[in-house]
Design brief:
about 300 residues; alpha/beta; Rossmann fold; 2 domains; 7-stranded mixed β-sheet; 11 helices
Length: about 300
């Protein structure tokens, strides 16, 4: 009797497991194809039949969606939708373990997606950071873009600030070759400088008004060494803008965020950990700012405008 009961229990357990796995597969399949539809619907080179079908998917999700208002950066939004799909495909297909092994298409898509953050920063973040609007507009102003990737973000900032020179550093020669193509194709090529360099070896002092540091793309050893070096490289009163994982307490979202960071080969930080890291490096006026859905979490810190940073 007990043996028969064990068989029934095993069958029920296997059935529950199968149902759970099918639910994950169904949810993932729908999400991937909805994001793919979004990416294709926003591109101007999509075949007409595919675009119609893609837009019908979007209309089924948001019936009043208006893609023809002329006020949206459709190319950037398309890249943002495509980036995680391309990255996941590269991870599965090529068995890559870090961001360095991603395909060119995946890296380009991520770069175009991250560039969307520049306008949002100017609109929402910049006014909150004391002294930074003036510093970014000053003649000879400089910004450091760590892990510049394809330099899409560097170009976006240079376009938004006519007096600004953006220095983009990255450790990957292949990525920097893509960045050079982005730089040359832009209207601000003379104000975007690219260097192959690890942020942990940064040795400049009193140079940059702003530094952007994306923790999910920087290994922990380099990140921890780099934060202190960035503090010295900023001008007194300069700011660091550190992007990191957004952990809001949803177990699925949090687990996916950690998994994605591991896939990138980067450092997983929550708000508190990011704030402690900046505090240990001597920053002041540290705060974690709210960001819209889909955007990374942001923690900022300021180099003291009076005494600088010790160390």
């Amino acid at each position: 009797m007990s043996q028969s009961s064990n068989v029934v229990d095993l069958d029920e357990s296997a059935g529950r497991t199968a149902a759970q796995l099918h639910q994950i597969l169904s949810t993932g399949d729908r999400a991937v194809w909805a994001a793919t539809a979004l990416a294709l619907a926003l591109r101007d080179d999509t075949a007409s039949d595919q675009r119609r079908a893609a837009r019908s998917v979007l209309n089924s999700i948001a019936p009043d969606l208006d893609l023809d208002s002329g006020q949206l950066d459709l190319r950037g939004l398309s890249a943002q939708a495509a980036a995680p799909i391309l990255q996941a495909a590269a991870l599965l297909t090529d068995k890559v373990e870090t961001w360095a092994g991603q395909t060119d298409d995946a890296i380009l898509a991520q770069g175009r997606a991250s560039a969307q953050g520049a306008k949002a920063f100017v609109q929402y973040g910049l006014p909150m950071l004391s002294g930074l609007p003036q510093a970014m507009a000053a003649p000879g102003a400089r910004m450091l873009d760590v892990g510049t990737g394809v330099a899409a973000l560097a170009v976006a900032y240079a376009e938004l600030f006519p007096a600004l020179t953006v220095v983009g550093i990255d450790v990957l020669p292949r990525v920097l070759r893509l960045a050079e193509e982005t730089r040359k194709a832009s209207t601000v090529a003379d104000r975007v400088v690219l260097r192959q360099q690890d942020v942990g070896t940064l040795d400049e002092v009193d140079v940059y008004a702003l530094a952007f540091l994306p923790a999910p793309f920087v290994p922990e050893t380099a990140l921890r060494a780099g934060v202190s070096r960035i503090a010295r490289a900023l001008i007194p009163g300069g700011w660091v803008l550190m992007a990191h994982g957004k952990f809001a307490g949803d177990p699925i979202d949090d687990a996916v965020t950690r998994f994605r960071t591991i896939a990138y080969g980067g450092t997983s930080l929550d708000d508190t950990q990011a704030e402690v890291l900046l505090e240990e490096a001597g920053f002041v006026d540290i705060m974690s700012a709210p960001t819209p859905p889909g955007a990374p979490a942001i923690t900022v810190g300021r180099r003291s405008p009076v005494n600088g940073v010790s160390g």
